[in-house]
Amino acid sequence: MSFLELQSLAKRYGDFTAVTECSLSIAKGEFVCLLGPSGCGKTTTLQMVAGFVQPSQGRILLDGKDITGVKPANRGLGIVFQNYALFPHMNVTDNVAFGLEMRGVPAPERKRRVNETLDLVHLSALAGRYPSELSGGQRQRVAIARALVIQPPVLLLDEPMGALDAKLREEMQIELRALQRRVGITTIMVTHDQAEAMTLADRVVLMNKGRIEQVARPYDMYEHPNGRFSSTFLGKANIFEGRAQDGAVEVQGHQLPCPEGSATGAIEYIVRPEKVEITGGPALVRGRITVRMFLGNHWLFQVETPLGVIQLTQVNSGQPQADEGDEVGLRWSGEHARVVPAGAAA
Fold first, then answer.
1. DSSP character for 327?
2. FRET pair for 114, CA 20 to 30 Å: which of 148, 168, 211, 278?
3. Does the pLDDT of residue 270 top 90, yes or no?
4. Strands 211-216 vs 203-208: parallel, antiparallel or unpaired
5. Taking 70 as the threshold, does the pLDDT of residue 58 lie above it?
6. Nearest-angstrom CA–CA distance, 165 and 169
């Protein structure tokens, strides 16, 4: 059952179209990530949901009610920006209480809800501190608490972890996902970070050039990309152009395995690096290792082959690995390949 629904949303600025025909249904309690490169339309889409940008066409329905023309302050949505937008002259308690005060919530009720929310985000001990006295992660939690305390139907997050360093970002991803599950609030987050989207989302909405390219659970999108853009933006992929007919794929004169029911005619053949393995036995293609890189928990290889350069990864097992200059055979299973029509969702 759809709780938040975007119906054919579009936003145009003169001759430039920022978002084109964006349609999406989000269930109550679902965590959805809008993922894509800079300029793909994800932030504009979020701003239309928030009410900061008026759509050029389309509707936004919240729990069955049309909120397309409703002012931002009257939508009652919780919003967290990348810079957190905390008031520097207010302590944690006053920052969190601000939205309730603006809504005229009585002082006793306001105090109770602020205390409950600070406890929820593990900030009760820092209630009297000011933003300048907090770490980046603590400021982020204050911003989230301020958004949650008004008990919004939907939480909107615009690159909320963009200002954090890598280690803290990873920690906060875990905290945010656990918090969202405890509260059960419908959440939409904008991010350009693929790992962040896969870590947090129930579903990923992948956008490119103002359009939705693919909507799927993170695992499904990674394992079953619908084209070149999806396969290369969400992870890495080897992509070859070829032809498919009668259940077989031919690329540069090589017969490659493919899953049943694959596309026919001109196709793009996609296989992830971790699905490719070096073999001393029968091989699909042979080549020479031109790059070998040690990355801690795995090795990265690039192999020059008649199909083109093939990239593969191998788990670091502690055993010696093939070296640059070695001639090797490569193989992979047809069930791990993806065959899509040429130019699909490019």
1. E
2. 168
3. yes
4. antiparallel
5. yes
6. 6
Q: Which residues make Cβ contacts (< 8 Å) with residue 224, sequence separation at least 6?
A: 216, 338
Sheet holding 211-216, edge to edge: 78-80, 154-158, 186-191, 31-35, 203-208, 211-216
Would you tell me the crossing angle of helices 136-148 and 107-120 to the nearest 10 degrees? 130
- For 166, the enclosing helix (H) or strand (E) is helix 166-183
CA–CA gap between residue 79 and residue 120 (Å, rounded): 17
68 — pLDDT class (breaks 50, 70, 90): very high
Alpha carbons 152 and 49: distance in angstroms, whole number: 13
pLDDT digits (tens, 9 = 90+) for 318-327: 877 889 999 9
Residue 175, sorted as left (phi over 0), alpha (psi -120 to 50) or beta, turns out to be: alpha
Q: Is 280 exposed, middle or buried (0-12, 13-18, 19+ CB in 10 A)?
A: exposed
Task: Return d(Cα 261, Cα 89) in angstroms, integer.
Answer: 62
Q: Which domains does the chain have, with CATH numbers?
A: 2-223 (3.40.50.300), 228-341 (2.40.50.100)
Give the H or E element holding residue 188.
strand 186-191
User: What's the whole-model pTM score?
Assistant: 0.89
Task: Tell me how far apart the alpha carbons of residues 198 and 219 are, in angstroms, rounded to a whole number.
Answer: 8
The count of other CB atoms within 10 Å of the CB of residue 166 is 7
Tokens of 53: 């940008």
Residue 109: what residue type? Answer: E
Q: Contacts for 168-175 with beta carbons within 8 Å, 24 or more apart? A: 168/135, 168/136, 168/137, 169/196, 171/137, 172/137, 172/140, 173/199, 173/200, 174/199, 175/141
